[in-house]
Amino acid sequence: MKKSVMFLIFAVLTLFMVNTAFAGTKCPQPRKTKKAPSGMFKKDKTASADAAAGKKIYDKTAKPMACKMCHGDKGDGNGKLGAALKPKPRNFTCAKTMKDIPPGQMFYIIKNGSKGTGMVAQKTLKDKDIWNVIKYIRTELMK
Question: Is the pTM of this model over 0.85?
Fold first, then answer.
């Protein structure tokens, strides 16, 4: 009996830890993010953007912190700092979620932040840099 209880406790704790470790990868990720104004929502300047420059910003140079700190190396929402956030950072690898988020909406959120989430406004990034990050996310992380 004692072994059964110990096993049950171990199993529950293991499931909790696994669920917590992969919380950022939940797919789809429902959100009630404020919609960008219609002019911005429909905008897409990724055709002339540079994904390599976007990767550099995503990995290292974005301020106040690099995107990967919350969104993770793979863009799955499992960054080191993202573990403490509720809701978890956006999982860019989730096709079910990302198919409904156009580039203009991504631009608006990066530039202005997202109320009710840990996503802060990236005020130090130039518009060109934001489009570069979006191109990187959409071409490399959303595979």
Answer: no
